[in-house]
């Protein structure tokens, strides 16, 4: 698919399924020339929970999906590593990525920030060509029993097949 973001920016996306995994993969190529804009992807899910789970260094953190206080409203985005997950006790969906680190979940909508066109401190930050991937991974159970960590690792470290001559 090719999307026209604006007269200055475009995005080409390949969406694929594989018989080896339950993931839905998105490979993206973006020409980004925006000013004061934020590009996000969002997925409304058929999953309800008061908290979402995010991978951080050496573990994970849970954040509320409903903003009840001004403190909750201020936590509009979570800095996380390879995945974010919204799960009920028997089913969940994880959003995996290979190079993006800003997630949010409000209600049942899981989001990932893809590109930012801020003006400070560097007005040219993120301008130009970008290649990145993300994936949706539905699973049984919570993120631990649903093998989200393993799937995120496989997504970020795919096996590389090479021909070689063994003598």
Automatic annotation (TrEMBL):
Domain of life assignment: Eukaryota
Q: Cite a single GO MF annotation.
A: carbohydrate binding
Stretches assigned to the Glycosyl hydrolase family 38 C-terminal domain: 7-123
Family matches, as Gene3D superfamilies: Golgi alpha-mannosidase II, domain 4 (2.70.98.30)
Query: Which Pfam family, any one of them, does this sequence belong to?
Result: Glyco_hydro_38C
Instruction: Output one GO BP term.
Output: oligosaccharide catabolic process
Recorded hits in InterPro entries, A to Z, give: Gal_mutarotase_sf_dom, Glyco_hydro_38_C
Q: Which SUPFAM superfamilies match?
A: Galactose mutarotase-like
Designated name of the protein: Ams1p
């Amino acid at each position: 698919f090719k999307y026209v973001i604006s007269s200055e920016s475009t995005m080409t996306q390949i969406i694929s399924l594989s018989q080896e995994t339950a993931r839905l993969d998105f490979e993206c190529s973006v020409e980004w020339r925006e000013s004061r804009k934020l590009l996000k992807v969002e997925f409304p899910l058929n999953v309800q929970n008061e908290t979402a789970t995010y991978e951080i260094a050496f573990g994970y953190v849970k954040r509320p999906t409903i903003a009840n206080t001004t403190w909750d409203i201020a936590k509009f985005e979570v800095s996380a590593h390879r995945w974010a997950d919204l799960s009920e006790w028997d089913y969940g969906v994880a959003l995996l990525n290979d190079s993006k680190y800003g997630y949010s979940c409000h209600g049942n909508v899981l989001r990932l920030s893809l590109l930012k066109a801020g003006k400070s401190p560097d007005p040219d930050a993120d301008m130009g060509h970008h290649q990145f991937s993300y994936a949706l991974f539905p699973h049984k159970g919570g993120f631990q029993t649903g093998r989200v960590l393993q799937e995120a690792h496989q997504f970020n470290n795919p096996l590389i097949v090479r021909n070689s001559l063994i003598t």
